Amino acid sequence: MSAAFETQALLRLMTWLSPAFPVGGFAYSSGLERAVHDRLVTDAVGLEAWLSTSVRHGMLWNDAVFVSLAAQVVEEQVKLAELAELGLALAGSAERHMETLSLGKAFLAAAEAWPASVFGLLPPDCPYPVAVGAVAAAHRIGAEQAIAAFLHAGVSQGVSAGIRLGVAGQQDGLRILSALETIAGEVAERAAAAGLDDLGSATVQADIASLRHERQNSRLFRS
Hints:
The protein has 223 residues and is an all-alpha fold. Helix content is 65%, strand content 0%. The longest helix is centred in the last third of the chain and has 23 residues, at 170-192.
């Protein structure tokens, strides 16, 4: 693979997973807003622990595996549909289901600016990580690189949400991003070699927070 192609792939990943890409990720907190409300997360240290746990053992780990699995079957329509169905079924709450489905649809609609045959293979209801993994693979972007970029985007979104919720400042956010770089890289390497049996989470508090957010009256985020 040429250096020019690798540079092009990097630029596409940066574009697709940038906060400026029109997927609406800024509107979601994946239960963090409720965790702050319930004082499970009260400061930057708690925010870092929350995000680190999600990457290692929670929602972001499962999403990373789905990015990898979608890349592995990028040319197989039936298997992509099965993955999408499983991804939606594993959503831990109604809001989490809405989040991953809405982001997936928005991502695919925007990414069609980079034509590829995979858009005709993916189902209409496609969760976000399956969409990202399939499109990245269709453009010959390595799974580990796609997963690392996906995790960085997810952590960045969590940091942004934490700042807006008042539990961390800008400098705290940058420190958290720096601290989680190594973890994200390690998890990306592990997820790139993962299979269906590696799906699973152990973040009960996060799942409960997501469920409780559905009944929260005053809110900044949709999840």
